[in-house]
Design goal:
- By secondary structure, the protein is of the alpha+beta class.
- Helices cover about 25% and strands about 20% of the residues.
- The protein has helices at about 30-35, 35-45, 55-65, 160-165, 195-200, 205-210, 230-240, 280-285, 290, 310-325, 325-335, 340-345, and strands spanning about 10, 50-55, 70, 80-85, 85-95, 95-105, 105-110, 115-120, 125, 130-135, 140, 155, 165, 170-175, 180-185, 190, 345-350, 355, 360-365, 365-370.
- It is globular and about 65 Å long.
- The two termini are about 25 Å apart.
- The structure holds heme C (7 copies).
Length: about 375
Amino acid sequence: MATGVIFLIRCSIENSTGKDPRGPLYAGAPACGTCHKDIMQAHLNSPHYQTSGKVSFDELKKFIGAAHNMVYYEDSAGIIVEEKHSQFFQSYRSGGKEVRSEQLDIAIGSGEKAQTYAYWKNEQLLQLPLTYFTALQSWTNSPGYPARKPYFDRVILSRCLECHASYVTKTDFQTGPLQVSEKLAANSIIFGIDCERCHGPAAGHVQFHQENPAAQEAKFIVSIKSLTRQQQLDVCASCHSGNDLDVQRTLFAFRPGDTLANFYYPYFGSGGKEPDVHGKQMQLLQASKCFQQSKMTCQSCHDTHPLKVNTNDIYTAKCMTCHQNSEHALQMKTNSNSCVNCHMPLQSSRSLDFNNGTEMKSIPYLLRTHKIAVYPAPG
Ligand code: HEC
Ligand code: HEC
Ligand code: HEC
Ligand code: HEC
Ligand code: HEC
Ligand code: HEC
Ligand code: HEC
């Protein structure tokens, strides 16, 4: 696995008021580092923390430096990513002329697999036409965008940021008789997934331990380890169970110990299809015998800080904590055969659709299925 790239500037520390925009119950991530140094250090390097931020020209240049390809559309029109006065722009050129050019203001995605960009216009974030695809080290059309014409107008709603950031203030406004859109307050955004996004508001915890430095036992903070299995799963599932349910209450309000189902409207569809590998780790895991017949949680295989996508050997060891009585497994382990290659194979997402403009090449977005099962031997 590639290591993450730190190139985003965050304004959680220096937002305009100097206070946490979520209110007085929140302390903000910098406060946690004074007592939880190691966890803080690990967290700063995690894809969770790096999953959104303001674009920094110098750092982005190091990261995407080698990607100079143009993405072509109809009539030889194309988009190129270029530097102008120490900023990056995506510029649309047609017939030798520049038609449109917008700045890369904000990045979404750590770039572990891909990174997409947005620019501000009238208090809205609009997604830029090109996305950087890390495995190819090149630019592609943003997922789901038409292959014929460049598109600059997809609004990034707060829903994106509910999974890729820690907070934003939004105001709804009418755009037509039955249509509503959102304005986002730029200086309210807390980029990245911070400590309190998973642990809940912790200003009380910070104050208590500052005033009682000898206290060894944590106060005024939810202990995730002591929650029920479902509650522990819900902490992760709030962002890892996909995007297709209608949200009833903002997920920014979700705290450890809450019941996730209360945040969504009930789903009455048939649910017949196999959940997609993109974003639906929870549903896929739930469909596995391992999950159904044990007390497995996400922590059975992933440490949260440092957030690790482990090596295959470490995963094999995790499998063996429960499968030490399987002769097959023991044998495979001796032969250093990676369990996950056969039982959690890489699959291409059906919901994320990347293409290369008029080259019309469809680009597979590969993820590991979390449905642990017996699959036909890889070809
Ligand atoms: C003044 C010191 C101090 C600060 C600042 C601090 N903590 Fe703690 N925290 C502690 C101590 C002491 C413990 C108990 C020992 C331990 O688990 O490390 C603790 C434990 C915890 C636990 C484990 C709870 C459990 O029972 O499993 C979490 C979670 C936690 N802190 C989160 C945070 C977050 C989030 C922040 C920042 C908003 C923060 N802490 C800031 C001192 C501090
Ligand atoms: C993606 C969610 C997530 C984020 C972000 C996160 N944590 Fe945790 N944290 C957890 C979970 C889950 C556990 C319980 C782990 C377990 O079951 O062993 C935990 C456990 C802890 C503990 C208890 C000791 C330990 O290591 O198990 C402390 C202290 C803690 N977190 C502090 C922090 C601090 C400080 C930050 C920010 C720098 C942070 N966490 C960010 C999910 C998160
Ligand atoms: C607030 C939303 C949110 C929560 C809560 C959350 N995640 Fe994530 N997680 C994400 C996003 C977004 C990414 C993609 C990060 C990126 O690479 O840009 C991600 C990525 C990951 C990855 C892949 C990391 C890598 O190296 O590619 C793992 C593993 C993971 N999460 C596990 C967990 C676990 C376990 C929990 C619960 C303790 C959890 N997540 C809670 C949003 C969340
Ligand atoms: C319900 C939560 C959720 C929502 C909403 C969501 N994402 Fe994600 N996103 C994830 C998770 C989880 C991952 C990483 C693992 C995966 O692909 O399953 C991810 C991965 C990504 C990545 C690749 C990051 C990397 O390098 O691994 C990008 C880019 C991205 N999302 C952009 C967006 C944009 C733009 C939006 C809004 C249009 C959005 N996402 C909405 C949860 C979400
Ligand atoms: C927390 C315990 C636990 C862990 C960890 C675990 N499993 Fe399982 N797994 C089970 C149980 C229980 C069953 C059902 C009984 C059986 O077949 O042994 C099962 C069943 C299976 C099956 C049979 C599935 C089927 O549909 O017939 C496979 C294959 C499997 N596990 C592979 C793995 C692999 C690979 C890993 C590591 C990535 C793993 N397991 C990790 C508990 C676990
Ligand atoms: C039985 C072990 C196991 C469990 C349990 C597990 N994962 Fe994973 N996870 C993996 C493996 C293996 C990978 C792929 C690592 C790789 O390919 O380098 C992975 C990768 C991921 C990724 C990165 C996306 C990708 O496919 O590369 C995310 C996100 C993730 N896991 C989230 C979760 C969440 C959320 C849970 C709990 C609902 C969970 N995982 C439970 C084994 C597990
Ligand atoms: C080369 C592919 C391959 C690898 C590597 C592999 N398996 Fe399997 N596994 C299979 C197949 C095929 C089956 C079903 C046929 C059978 O039962 O032998 C299976 C069945 C299983 C079962 C259910 C039957 C039983 O024997 O308990 C479990 C559990 C399991 N595997 C766990 C593991 C674990 C753990 C590892 C890693 C140590 C592993 N497997 C490595 C292909 C593989």
